[in-house]
Automatic annotation (TrEMBL):
InterPro entries for the chain: YdcZ
Chain ranges passing through the membrane: 30-50, 62-82, 88-111, 123-138
Keyword terms, alphabetized: Membrane, Transmembrane, Transmembrane helix
Cellular component GO terms, alphabetical: plasma membrane
Pfam families cross-referenced by the UniProt entry: DMT_YdcZ
PANTHER family attached to this UniProt entry: INNER MEMBRANE PROTEIN YDCZ (PTHR34821)
Protein name: Transporter family-2 protein
Amino acid sequence: MIYFLVFIAGLMLACMQSFNGLLSNYIGTYGTSLIVHCIGAVMLLVYLLIKKERIRLYPMPWYLYSAGIFGLVLVAFTSVSVSVIGAALTTCLSITGQIFCSIVIDHTGAFHLPKLRFNKKRIPCLLMILCGLVIVLIN
C-alpha cells in the first residue's frame, strides 16, 4: 500500500509542477509560491477542524523547520522551470536530484535517519537513470 501512495504522490507532484508553471505565467514565481502555501494552509486548517485534531509542537532540532524553506524553494524553482523547459524535463531533473540526494542521506544517516549503506548493485540502475536523463535533455 505504501508503494501505491508514493506513486500517487509522484503523480501529484508532476501535476503540481505543471499547474505551478502555468500559474507563474499569470502571477509570477513569488505570487505562485504565496498562493500555493496559503491554499495549503487553509486546506490543512479546514482538515484539522473537521477531524478535531491539534498540531502538537514538540521540542525538536532547529533544522527541521527548514522543511518549509525547502517547500518554498521547490515551488518557486519548479514553477520557473516548467514554464521554461517544460514539465517532463523539470520532472526528470527533479527526480534525478531526489534520487542522488536520497542515496547520500540513506548512506550517511544524515538528519539522524537510519543508515542504509549503498548497495553497488544499484549502480546499473543509476546509470540507466542518468542515460534516460541525457536522452530527455538532448531531445
